[in-house]
Amino acid sequence: MPRPRKFDEDTVVEKAAGVFAAVGYGGTTMEELSRATGLGKQSIYNTFGGKRDLFLRALERSTSTQVDRLTVELTSGTASPLERIRAHLDALAITFTLEGPLDSLFTKATVELADRDPEVAEAARCAYRRLEDEYAGCIEQAQTAGEVDAALDARALATYFVAVTRGMEVLGTAGADRSVLLGVGRAAFTLLT
User: Fold this and answer.
1) What's the predicted TM-score (pTM) here?
2) Nearest-CA neighbor of 161 among 127, 189, 122, 120?
3) Cα–Cα distance between 77 and 62 in angstroms, integer?
């Protein structure tokens, strides 16, 4: 009879995501995953199937976290839809320039692996579509409220905001100043006004 697990899988996936985000998939070793999670290599294999399967779980967690965060920012509060988008862009500029590690597994994995790994590419496409849906919904609300020109293509604008915000993340990771990212976000916002 197998022994009961003495660890929480979600916690292990979260810790592994931090390692993958810090050094990428190619730079992560099983030894590093074992140290970070507190599990032996065999336990990782037995539970998750190995490094790749654990990585895919961590990537799913990272993408879901990004989408969930956006959903909250664009749907909560009493501010108008247009103001929620502006506040979201400002918040990203701040988040992407904070000291310390940034949960950039979503973007990092896309850049590192999507061109040669169909599963990663599909995970990225799915996440980008979900992000687009959130932006499009908020832009459509702003159009209904008369804040944004109804003739503008909400889906195209949503795709644009996904591209801009992922670019802001890359710039922030590379060390861009907060003022630079605030300027990028505010320039993008002017398309709506």
Assistant:
1) 0.89
2) 189
3) 24
Give the DSSP letter string of 109-135. HHHHHTTT-HHHHHHHHHHHHHHHHHH
**Residue 19 CB coordination number (10 Å):** 22
Spans in the chain with pLDDT lower than 50: 1
**Structure tokens belonging to residue 41:** 């290599």
Alpha-helix runs per DSSP H in 38-190:
41-48, 51-75, 81-95, 105-113, 118-144, 154-173, 178-189
Quote the pLDDT of residue 101: 57
Closest CA to 162 of 74, 100, 80, 47: 74
Please, how many CA atoms are within 13 Å of residue 74, restricted to the half-sphere of its CB? 24
Q: What is the pLDDT of residue 173?
A: 86
Match domain 59-192 to its CATH number in 3.40.470.10, 3.30.40.10, 1.20.58.220, 1.10.357.10: 1.10.357.10
